[in-house]
Every structure is written in C-alpha cells, then in structure tokens.
Write a structure and sequence with these properties.
Four Helix Bundle (Hemerythrin (Met), subunit A), elongated
C-alpha cells in the first residue's frame, strides 16, 4: 500500500498496527528459519563426503601397504634364491670348504626368509601359488643339500644336477605369476579409487547445486522481503536529501521495515515543518561564521608577521641606541650654537620616531596591549600636518584638515596612532599620484558620543572589491616591485585592534577611498601630561665619582654609554663581550654594572648570576640592557630585582636609571657617609 506523509496521527495508528502483528511477519524469524535449514542440509552433505572420504582412505591405505609389503617380500625371495643358487654352483665345483660353508649359510638364511614369506597374510586367491612356490623351494634346497653332502655317486649326481635348472625355472615362473597377481590387485585398487572419485565428484556436484539453489533462494527472499523495500527507502532518502519532503512509499508487511518506513514518513512531515525555520537560522549563523573566519584569518596573518618583526626589531635597536645617544651627547656639547643644534635635534627627533616605530613593531610582534594614556586625538592630526603638508604640496596634493573646536579625549598611544595615520596618508598620496596631476586628501577627527573617530579620504583611483578585501593582509601591495613592502596597513590594523577599535574601508574604482577608524572615548577630565622623555641629560655636580662596569658586544654602545656616564660623574670600565667580565670584577671595585642581555658566549643573565655569586652586593646594582623585552621575559622570576633599560634609550632614561640605583646606594650608606662598595 502507498502512504503519503500527511500527518502524525495517521502514522501513530499505522505504527500501532505494525506492533500488533504476530511474529511470523518478522524478517528476522524468516531468515533465521531459512539459515537453519540451509545450514542443516549443508552439514549433512559435508558429513557424508567426509565419512566416505575417510572410509576409502583407510581401505585404500591398508591395501596399498599390504601390496607394497608383498612386492618387497617377493623381491627378497627372488634375490635370496638367486644368491643361494650361485653359492651352490661355486661350492659344488670348487670342492673347497669356504664356498661350501658360504652355501650352507645362505641356504639357512633363505630358509628363514621363506618362513617369513609363508607367515605373511596374503589374499586367499594367492595361497595356491604361494604353496607351489614353497614346494619348489623346499625341493631345490633338498637337492642342493644332497649334492653338497659327502659320499657322491657320479651317476646320481648327474641325475640330480639335471633337475636344478628346471627347478629354478619353475621357481622364477611361480614368482612371475605372483607378480602378475599383485599387478591385478593394484588394478583392482585403481578401479575402486576411480569409483570413489566418481562418487565424491557427484557429491560435490550436489553440494554445488545446493549452494547455487540456496543462493537463488536467499536472493529472491532478500529481494521480496528486504531489498525492494530498502530501495524504496533509499529513493525516499534521496528525495528528502534533494529537498523534496513530499514522499510516498509502500508500507512493508514485516514488523521491522513497516515501522521503519512509517517512522521515516512521519519524520519527513516534521522536517518539512521545521525546514523554513532552520533555513533562517542557518543564514544567520552563516553570516556570523563568515565574520569570525575573516577575523581569524587576519589574526593568523598578523601572527606570522609578528614572528618576522620580533627578530628584525632587535637588530635595529643596537645601532639606533648609538645614533640616539650620540646625538644627545653632541646636543649637550653644542651649547647655544643654533646652526649645530638644529641638525642634531632633527637627528635625535627622527631617531626617537624610529625608536617608537620599532617599539610599536615589537609590541605588535609580542601581541601585548599598547601602552596608552589619555590624549587628545586632534594633536595627532596636527603632528601629521606638520610632518607631511610641505611634501604633499610639493607633489601637487592639497591636504585638508578638519578638527572640532573641543578636545577629542581618548585612551591611546600617540606614536602608534601617528603611525597609523601616516600609513593611511601615504597610501592616499600614492593613489592620487597614480591617476591625476593634482589631487586632494582630507583628514578629520571627532567623536559621536560613544567613540572617537578619524578619517582619511582621497580622490584617487579607488579600489576594486578584490583589492579592498586584502589591503590589510601582510605583504599585500599593489605598488610596483621595490616601492612597497605591504606591511603598513597590516601593522595599522593590528594597532587599531590593540586600542580596542575598528577600521572600515569604503572605495570604488574612479571614486576614491575613505578609511574610517573608531576608538573608544576616554573620561573627559584633564590629567597632567607626562614629562618629555627625550630631554638631554645634564651633568651631575654633587657626590663622589662612581665606578661603573659596562658590558656589551657593540663597541659603539660602549663608547656612547661611557660618554653619557661621564656627565653623571661616573667613571666607566668598558668590556667588549662577556669574556673579560670575571677578570675585571676580580681586579677592580665597582659601584654598579650595566650589561647587555643578548651577547655571544655568556648572555646578560649568566653574567648577572656570576656577579651574584662573586659580589652579592654589586648584583643589587645591576642594570640590564635589552633590544627586545621578549628575551627578558624568559628570566622574569630571577630578574625581578634587576633594573631593565630597553634599547634604544635616551640619556635621560640612562641617567634616571643610574641615579635610581645610586640613591639606593645612598640609603644603604653608614652614619659616616661612606659610600658602599662591592667587597
């Protein structure tokens, strides 16, 4: 019967009907009965074949063993007769004791062999010939024994000698007849074997026919009671999978498949009811997953970029430390000479800018939050205008700045946001120069009560959707080879994420590009601005001259630190690398140690551990320089009491760190004011 999935009530009634049917309708019981009958017949045939096979094997084996033994004895009898006859003739004609004695031994051995031969269980049909053979052999033994005995009559001997050859011929003829009898027995066994083989073949043919019949029987039973209904079920499943939930099927009479098909039709009806709701939820979830996947992909790309940046930043910080330090040293020596100070101040400011960029890259690589403070977003736009306005005008591009009259307070890192804004303006400049001789760039900032924002807009060439989707990917660039690294916007994306903000792009080919960034607002209350970290160090004039041990693998950094320490009344002993540290500590007394962390041979931490063992008091006045804070994080617990001085550092930072340690030294002085020295 055919059933349409119309409703759950009809299905419940049909399922109750299936459950009420008696067990013979069960597919399981039918197939169990069929399998039991087939197995019984198969066991009967196999048992019959095995029985006849064992029976024939036993009969044939016994007959073959008896035939083999018979042939062996006949062969021995024939060989023994020939040996005895040969010994007789040799002894008879030689008349010597040796040959006569040998004849007697062979004759005795042949008698024993003949006794064994007569005791063998021959077939009944062979006994007449065997008795004849025994008679002939006994007569042969009597004649030869009489001839070999003493007191011979010549005529009698001649008469006896004439009977020996006929006796030997008769014996050979008897043995030949026995051989023919054994061949006849072998032919009989072969006939029996052929008969058994034919019977076994017939049994095997019957078993094969039974197997084929059983297979056909099972195939028809499977098709009628199982496969046809499963094919209908498969068809319904395919229809449902293709989206067609209006399926029909014939309900089987069996308990198992009947309830299964009915339940499936019921399920199809319920699925049809829930399909619309499910599709709506799937669409919503798909949108969410696509957004999450895009964010995860971007984070993975930035993480791979961070691994590259971490190694490069450390190599930049060492030469940058020399540039920044010596520029401040020269600024201190220039006095009031404006012609000398202006270039030096520019070098120092640009070095500070590069230091901030490297610090941003390191922070980005370590994926740690940016160091933020309350700041006015307008100041970032003003700094950018001072930096890029002249160059943009030289390139026939007008920069338009829009800032609100009131401050836009937010928590952020001014140098990082300056880097973001600079990257966006540089990309806008490239887009404008690529499509027109004169162009415009608009930058603006403000707040909407919930977040601070700034935008960069240009009237350049715009972007295709494909390019727009990849502009924040590391190393993605549309510029010619050698004119761009593809890192600027990727770093900018990471900086805005660290500030808890978002960055969005609107662009169309021929209509320019607008990039808008949003960052959370800060509380609207004024706070004191932090002191300028880039001020030049001034010489200390109070106190005694201190003795500092400076260790680094860069000669330029050693000379810069030595020059800077002289301005704070510190005498420096310079050690290039870690090889000479132990000797220097053993020869002289020091008030403090300034050591680089990453060096060939012993690193800064190992040097600190050595000094702590040799001069525990000196280890308390230990300054550790590092170009990558991530290297120091491996020794966080043991270096908790050590002062860290990140490279590149200004003279003011070096002075504050040194003075901080010397102030601890002053607190530790005795009442007489004697300075504490490492002992």
């Amino acid at each position: 019967m055919s059933v349409f999935s119309s409703g759950p009530n009809d299905f419940n009634a049909k399922k109750d009907l299936f459950r009420a049917r008696p067990k013979p309708y069960s597919i399981e019981r039918r197939f169990l009965l069929m399998q039991a009958g087939s197995a019984g017949l198969a066991l009967l045939l196999i048992s019959t074949v095995l029985f006849w096979n064992q029976y024939f094997h036993d009969q044939l084996g016994t007959s073959l063993e008896q035939l083999s033994a018979t042939l062996a004895l006949e062969t021995q009898i024939q060989a023994g007769h020939e040996t005895t006859e040969h010994a007789f003739w040799e002894g008879y004609y030689s008349k010597q004791v040796g040959p006569i004695h040998e004849f007697e031994e062979r004759s005795h051995a042949f008698d024993q062999l003949l006794d064994r031969f007569m005791a063998f269980p021959f077939p009944e049909a062979d006994w007449a010939e065997i008795n004849e053979l025994q008679r002939l052999e006994v007569k042969f033994q009597e004649v030869t024994a009489r001839l070999m005995s003493g007191g011979r009559d010549a005529e009698a001997d001649d008469s006896q000698l004439k009977t020996i050859n006929p006796l030997s011929s008769a014996i050979e003829a008897s043995l030949h007849r026995l051989d023919e009898a054994q061949i006849h027995h072998l032919a009989t066994l072969n006939s029996q074997r052929n008969l058994f083989s034919t019977g076994l073949t017939l049994l095997l043919i019957m078993f094969a026919a039974f197997t084929v019949w059983t297979s056909i029987w099972f195939r028809r039973a499977h098709k009628n009671h199982l496969w046809s209904h499963l094919e209908d079920l498969h068809r319904m499943v395919s229809d449902v999978r293709a989206g067609n939930l209006n399926v029909t099927a014939e309900i089987p009479r069996s308990v198992e498949l009947g309830s299964l098909v009915a339940t499936f039709l019921e399920m199809a009806g319920k699925v049809r009811e829930a399909r619309d709701l499910l599709e709506e939820k799937v669409l919503q979830r798909t949108v969410q997953l696509e957004q999450a996947q895009a964010e995860l992909l971007q984070a993975a790309k930035l993480a791979s970029l961070g691994q590259l940046v971490s190694g490069v930043a450390h190599e930049i910080n060492n030469p940058l430390t020399c540039i920044l330090g010596f520029s401040e040293v020269l600024l201190g020596r220039a006095g009031g000479d404006a012609a000398a100070q202006d270039p030096l101040r520019t070098i120092r400011d640009e070095a500070m800018r590069l230091r901030n960029l490297v610090a941003n890259l390191t922070t980005f690589a370590r994926r740690t939050p940016a160091r933020t403070e309350r700041m006015d977003l307008r100041q970032v736009l003003i700094r950018l205008t001072d930096l890029r306005d002249y160059q943009l005008q030289a390139n026939n591009i007008s920069l338009h700045v829009g800032c609100p009259p009131d401050a836009v307070w937010m928590n952020g890192n001014a140098d990082q946001l300056m880097q973001v804004l600079l990257n966006l303006v540089l990309n806008a400049e490239q887009a404008v120069k690529g499509c027109r001789e004169r162009g415009d760039i608009w930058i603006a900032c403000g707040d909407d009560g919930q977040a601070a924002w700034f935008t960069v807009r240009d009237n350049g060439s715009g972007m295709t959707p494909e390019v727009r989707d990849h502009i924040f990917d590391p190393f993605f660039t549309t510029r010619p080879t050698g004119q761009g690294t593809g890192l600027g916007l990727s770093i900018s994306y990471g900086i805005i994420q660290q500030h808890g903000g978002t960055i969005a792009v609107e662009s169309a080919v021929g209509h320019g590009t607008t990039i808008k960034t949003r960052i959370p607002l800060a509380a609207k209350e004024l706070v004191a601005q932090p002191p300028d970290d880039s001020r030049s160090a001034t010489p200390r004039t109070d106190g005694d001259v201190k003795h500092a041990l400076v260790i680094d693998d860069e000669q330029g950094i050693l000379e810069m630190v030595s020059d800077a320490l002289e301005r704070v009344k510190c005498r420096a002993t310079l050690v290039l690398g870690s090889a000479g540290v132990e000797a220097a500590i053993a020869q002289e007394q020091f008030d403090l140690v300034i050591c680089d962390l990453k060096m060939p041979g012993q690193n800064g931490f190992e040097v600190y551990r050595m000094i702590r063992e040799m001069r525990p008091a000196l280890a308390e006045r230990f300054i550790l320089m590092t170009g990558n804070l991530a290297d120091a994080e491996k020794y966080t617990m043991e270096l908790a009491a050590v002062s860290l001085l990140p490279k590149p550092f200004t003279l003011a930072q070096l002075r504050e760190t040194v003075e901080g340690l010397l102030q601890k030294d002053a607190v530790a002085k005795g009442p007489d004011g004697a300075a504490l020295r490492s002992e």
